[in-house]
Amino acid sequence: MSGGPRREARSDALRKGSSLAAAEGVIAGERTRLLPVGEEHLPLLAGWFADPAFVRHWGGQPLSREEVARKYTGRRRPAVESFLVTVDTVPIGYVQYVPAGPGQGGIDLVLVPQAQGSGLGPDAARALVRHLHTVLGWSRVTVDPEASNSRAVRAWTRAGFRPVGRQGSRLLMECVPVTASARRGDPQA
C-alpha cells in the first residue's frame, strides 16, 4: 500500500537532500532526522532529563539542568557527538555517539515515552549507523541496553544489532548491516 504522492514526494526530497543535510550536520533517516544539539536546546533537554519516565532506562535518575548542560548540549564535542531526534521538525528524543578507538564506538538513544514503540528509534539508529559507517568509516558500532529492557533489545535488533556478550546487567550488542529486503521481512535476506 502506497503512502500517496505527497508522502512519496516528501520521501524523494529527503533522499535527495540527505547529502546536503549531512554536510550541514543533519543526518536523515527514512522517518527521522538527527539534528546536532546546541545550547539553545537546553530548556527542552533539561525538561526531558528531569522526567523520571524519560530517564527510566537512561541511568534511572532525573538529572539537574546543570548536569544536562554539561553532558548533553554539545559541550563534550568531539569526544561525544549529540543529536536531537526529530520527526517532521518535532523533537522526540536524544541520541549520541562516542568514539572508542579507531573506526569504532558506541551509541546511546532515548525517546520520549509517546514516541516509543512506533519504529522511530530503529529508524534513527539505522540513520546514525549509516552515517558512522559511510561518513566516518566506522567498522564496529555497539550499544549496551539493560538486558532486562526487552523493548529496547527488540528495537536495537530491528535497527540491525545482534547480541555479542554481557557486561553485568547490560547486553552488549553490535551492529549487523541490514539490507532493504531484510527490513521488509524477506526470508531470503
Total beta-strand segments: 8
Structural class: alpha+beta
What's the name of the CATH homologous superfamily? Answer: Gcn5-related N-acetyltransferase (GNAT)
Radius of gyration: 16 Å
The order of strands across the largest sheet is 1-2-3-4-5-6-8-7
Major pleated sheet: 8 strands, mixed
Q: Percentage of helical residues?
A: 25-40%
Give the overall shape, derived from the CA principal axes: globular
The CATH class designation is Alpha Beta
What does this structure look like?
The protein has 189 residues and is α+β, with helices and mostly antiparallel strands. The protein has a single domain (4-183), classed as Aminopeptidase (3-Layer(aba) Sandwich). The chain is built from seven helices and eight strands. The protein has an eight-stranded mixed beta sheet with strand order 1-2-3-4-5-6-8-7. Strand 7 and strand 8 (170-175) form a beta hairpin. Helix 2 (42-49) crosses helix 4 (65-72). The longest helix is centred in the first third of the chain and has 20 residues, at 4-23.
Provide the fold topology.
Elements: H1 4-23, E1 27-28, E2 33-36, H2 42-49, H3 52-55, H4 65-72, E3 81-87, E4 90-99, E5 104-111, H5 120-134, E6 140-143, H6 150-158, E7 161-167, E8 170-175, H7 180-183
Helix pairs in contact: 2-4
Properties at a glance:
8 strands; alpha+beta; 7 helices; eight-stranded mixed β-sheet; globular; 36% helix; Aminopeptidase; 189 residues
Report a brief summary of the structure.
By secondary structure, the protein is of the alpha+beta class. Helices cover 36% and strands 25% of the residues.
